[in-house]
Amino acid sequence: MVVPTTTPVRQDTVAPPPPPPPSSHGGIPTVDMSAPGSRGALSRQVARACAEQGFFRAVNHGVSPAPGARLDAATAAFFALPPRDKQRAGPPSPLGYGCRSIGFSGDAGELEYLLLHANPAAVAHRARSIDTDDPSRFSSVVNEYVGAVRQLACEILDLLGEGLGLKDPRSFSKLITDADSDSLLRINHYPTACTIHKLDHDCQCKMKSNVRTKNGNVVNPSAGARIGFGEHSDPQIISLLRANDVNGLQVLLPNSNGKEVWIKVPADPSAFFVNVGDLLQALTNGKLVSVRHRVIASTCRPRLSTIYFAAPPLHARISALPETITAGSPRRYRPFTWAEYKKTMYSLRLSHSRLDLFHVGDDDSSNVGKGEKE
Ligand SMILES: C=C1C[C@]23C[C@@]1(O)CC[C@H]2[C@@]12CC[C@H](O)[C@@](C)(C(=O)O1)[C@H]2[C@@H]3C(=O)O
Ligand SMILES: O=C(O)CCC(=O)C(=O)O
Ligand SMILES: [Fe+2]
């Protein structure tokens, strides 16, 4: 893990012992969730990574590999279907099967995906167009995976609550275990450079790889390093990502001089990569930071990634927890509901720093020209 420079908020008067020496995986903070030692040390380590990088690799996390393997097999089988069969589960609304196009504002990436609501009723409904042979088999594979990964998400959120010294350490996990939680599951399939023309054909995309620049030249923005999934932060509370052994994920982290640089995340199929989302940044008054990340797809093997986006119910009010507001750290964001935030984000481009729009007393000029809908 990158050596921390700040300590997360605590109400204790006695300074806690510093977390164990950080470990690193190609510059990526790594937390061993089963390391011997106290829970307090683990919670401070998790809070430190989320405060400084907004991102960490969780190893020895206790999630059995079986549900992930079953889900990978089911989704790989779906992506291998003929285009016409896959399109039965699309176009994305934003849920469903999507190819190349991301969101509603003109963003594109070299991928195809399934975006599912994580609640069992929604999964059962969607499964009918994804696995026409045996929808209930697909549903049970998804539900089993979601159950396992949600448990890990709750454990991480509880550690964060403890590490931040919250009065109710379960404040974060309660939001995602609510029966009306709006959590999502996304499975991204990035085809290889060699088969990208096939994806062009399969998607029957109106969108072309070539684009005309302002001066009239025609360029292919995806030549060479191809944007698999463009730069963004995840809007929800926390995201847990697991992928196969194909690289591609990059995160924007501060280097030792404080300059933000793109760090390539070495693939690790046995780990979960944990991202702080915009809502957790808002709930902690900016103590935890929502990390910007992207996928550059340039390998010879397809990348398959599965991301669980843990979200509160639509009506949940997102307001900085009182413990995170102090005289030296006044409220940064005005309260809002997740529904309001979602509506705003779907009106904006993928790369938009949308949380800035909720900054108290901000005239939003910092966001002008940064990814607005064209
Ligand atoms: C362009 C967009 C796609 C997205 C919604 C948005 O308007 C901006 C955020 C995007 C994102 C990124 C993380 C997740 O993959 C996602 C499902 C989400 O909640 O926010 C996507 C949205 C999407 O693809 O629908
Ligand atoms: O597919 C990946 O590895 C990451 C994709 C991502 O960041 C997302 O879907 O929000
Ligand atoms: Fe993401």
TrEMBL record:
Composition bias, Polar residues: 1-10
Annotated stretches, region: Disordered: 1-39
EC identifiers of the protein: 1.14.11.13
PANTHER family linked to this entry: 2-OXOGLUTARATE (2OG) AND FE(II)-DEPENDENT OXYGENASE SUPERFAMILY PROTEIN-RELATED
Name of the featured protein: gibberellin 2beta-dioxygenase
Record bears the keyword Iron: yes
Cofactors required: L-ascorbate
Pfam family, one: 2OG-FeII_Oxy
Record-level GO BP terms: gibberellin metabolic process
Keyword set includes Ribosomal protein: no
Domain Fe2OG dioxygenase span(s) in chain numbering: 180-312
EC category name: oxidoreductase
Family stated for the protein in its record: Belongs to the iron/ascorbate-dependent oxidoreductase family. GA2OX subfamily.
Catalytic activity as recorded in UniProt: gibberellin A1 + 2-oxoglutarate + O2 = gibberellin A8 + succinate + CO2
Organism of origin: Urochloa decumbens
MF terms in GO: gibberellin 2-beta-dioxygenase activity; metal ion binding
Record's keyword terms, sorted: Dioxygenase, Iron, Metal-binding, Oxidoreductase
